[in-house]
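[Q] Does anyone have a clean structure-token version of this?
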Amino acid sequence: MGKASTTASKNAQTLTPPIPDKPKRKRRWGDRYDGYRVRELDGLFYLIPSIMRERHDSQVLFEEDIPIENLEKYVHRKRKEGCNIRTLHVFLAAMVRVMAMYPRINRFVSGKKIYAHKDIRISMAIKRNMSIDGEETNIMPVFPAGCTLDNVSDIFETELFNSRGHGNEEDTNATDGVVKVLKVLPTWFISFFVWLMKKLDNHGKMPKVINKASPFHSGAFVTDLGSIGIDSIFHHLYDFGTCSIFLAIGKKQTKLALDKNGEPYTQKFISCKFVLDERICDGYYYANVIKVFRRFIKHPELLELPLTDIPEEI
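[A] Here you go.
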């Protein structure tokens, strides 16, 4: 891990040419430091945040079993070529790509208003080491919208390597630092602090240091349950923060399927479960996103080229 991560760290710092990113917009009245106010909405979407006030009121669930024969061949071939590409990297790259291509899924609701995230930020919970008692922490890498699969691999591995403290359990990231301060305080103060941060966040006034340290303030939360040998689950969204998508990636499995001639065969697949906030876009939009996500997993070579035609949010 050390040598590969060091290489990833160097590569992430010397990526040339610059990775294409979505254009930055000038901040206007009503925008937040972490998001732009979406002003052009279909009629019902003006009302939905007042009808469904919390994310747990507005969760919709999608399940998708994605064949992985081509994915496994691709990862095996890239490893033979000396590339440190893993299955998780492909899923992350597919998520980054659909969030760039379909910017409505990178929205969030706060204070009964709909905003668009300024960047593509994905949260993940990780273990500092893989023992059952190993300390858990969170990473929140930010990905330029035009990322290729190699870019995503470099950025993710660098963030992972740094957050694990190069093997030093005493090293902490921003999330760990805030938690270490709060956990020595009385419970009533922690409850008050969280309540206050949520109120400030509703008005876009939460301190930036808390926003930066919070894994709940991202476009998506991804968990790789397959890495610990279990299937995917429907994980709830958090009412605290700005995260509108939760993706759980399951373990590799096999099932009987039918080919185009109706003949049975054994198919390898991974089950992905999405929990989504239906207040930010309609179901048809989500369905198209998941179909494109599935295509990227089945054909990961499509992620090797940067996305240069990046759609702009409304």
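[Q] Thanks! Anything notable?
[A] Confidence is low (pLDDT under 50) at residues 1-5, 8-15.
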